[in-house]
Structures are given as structure tokens and as C-alpha cells.
Amino acid sequence: MSSLSLSAPAKLNLHLEVLGLRRDGFHELAMVMQTIDLADELIAAAAPPGQLSLSCSEASLAVDGSNLVLKAAELLREEVSNPQLSAALHLDKRIPIGAGLAGGSSDAATALLLLNRFWQLQLPEAVLLRLAIQLGSDVAFCLAGGSQLCFGRGEVLEPLASTPPLGVLLLKDPLVSVSTPWAYGRCKALRSAQYLEGEEAFETRRQALRSGALLQWFCAAAQAGPPPVLRNDLQTVVAPEVESVQLGLKLLEQAGSPLVVAMSGSGPSLFALYASPAEAAEAGASLAPLSAENGFDQWVCRFTPARHG
Ligand code: C5P
User: Do 288 and 170 touch, CB atoms closer than 8 A?
Assistant: First the structure.
């Protein structure tokens, strides 16, 4: 095979609830995640036996062994005990870095899927899922993407039956990024007194999410009316500390008639949802001068369904 490419979509958190602390030190979460059509592109081309390399369109991103794409490639080679497998990988980076959009996790998941094909390994989904979990908490979701409930560290997945055709306006200040460990650390420092304890209490919250107002709205064919306020427990600890999060949320509230606005993941990306991609495009056009004036980059996107195979 001379070359193969696959896109790596960004995700939004439509719900991010920190339930408590796990024995492994990670947080126990209840989330709804959704992929959008803002995506990186990963390309694999032939290379001399045993050689693995990565180049990237974004000069500030490390392309050494610390990059999750190369970590994913190494994990696959170890899994099949074949150090002679080779690839020259190139990442066309479009998802902003350190943004709460799972760009790095999506690149890692895409590397697993792409190289499984490029190297004709035919590893089953369950093996890719096991490797994904070793790479990061959001990588498992990013294998299939689409609309999913994510529990545990983020790797216990319950796909939703369908993805509504909503539009998204996304804002991010290119000069600001938020470290995920820092955001969870802040959450622990400020909120651990209210953390739940024990599997029974966690399962009660999971069930509340499965049968709650957000999913009822999400699964209603016509999305009649606006969704409930989106809950992101990291937003409540990050927003007071990061001015651009507060400003971005205010800007989005003025952009047309959004159904709802929120921060994604650990931030600092902010998004507004619209009844259709056309409405999001209109809102984006009206907000563009103001977002540029305030130093924000903006993207008009849409929800994307799960990828298969
Ligand atoms: O798994 P990942 O590398 O994406 O996690 C980055 C950091 O975010 C972890 O080291 C941890 O500090 C925090 N985290 C957490 N609980 C999770 C996911 C991430 O505390 N469920």
C-alpha cells in the first residue's frame, strides 16, 4: 500500500460531570461526547523497514516519541511483535492544541485505525479499544466518535442511536490553552468535599444522565425547543480563572439565537449549538468581526455521526 489517510475529528462535551475519585487517581466521569466536522488529517506512507517517523503541519507540536500518534504506532507494533513494521506519518493539524477538543486523543485513535489498515493487521475493535485506553482517557471515544455516553475514566462507552443534525459555532483564543491535569487538579482542590463515593452512588448518576432531560432532548427527532443548560463541572472551576472563557461565552450568547452555550472539556474552547448548520453559519458571519476584534478564532461546524470500520 503506497499511502492511506484518515480524518481525526474533534469532540465537544455536551455533559461533563465529575462524580468522584477512582482508586487509580483518575476522576470517575459521566459525559456525553459528540464529534464535529473540524478534523485533523493523518496520512501514512511507505518507509524503510523498521522506520517510524512523524511530520506535522503545525511547527509547535512535538513530532518525537512523546507525540500520541507515534505512541499509538509503537503500541501496535508491540501488540503484533513486529518491530519491522514501518510508516512515514504526516499530520495535517487543524484542531487547535490544548483546547478541550480532544485533538491529540483523536489523532491517537486515528493512528490506531489507520495503521491497523495500512499494516493489514486486522486487529479486532476490542484490541484497539484496549490499546486506546493505554494512550489516554478520551482515545477510546475517538475510535468511533459520533454521539456517545462515556463513563469510567471516559473509556466505558454507550453509543447513542442517532446524531441530530445540529450546527455549532466554536470559539477559541489562539493565545490561551488549558492543561487538562491542571483543570482536574483545580476541580479536586475546590470540589472534592462534594465528590460521591462508591459504585452505587456513581451508577445512580449514570442512570440519571441516561434518562435525563439532555438525552430526551438529544434523542427527540425534531429537537423541539432548546436543550437544558449543559453541565460541565470543569467549566465551573476553569471559567473563574481563565478570562477568555468568560469573554467567549458572552460573545457566543450574542451570536444569533443559540440553543445553548458551554465550554468543551477542560477548555478553553467554547461552543454554541444551533438548530441547523445554516443557522450556525449565519450566527458565525454576524459574530466574525467581534470575535476577530477580541482575538478569537472561530469555526462553523456540524455534528458528525460515528465512523465505522
Ligand atoms: O487520560 P489523559 O492523559 O487524557 O488525562 C490527562 C490528565 O487529566 C490525567 O493525568 C488526570 O490528571 C486528568 N484526568 C482525570 N480523570 C479523568 C481523565 C483525566 O483526573 N477521567
Answer: no
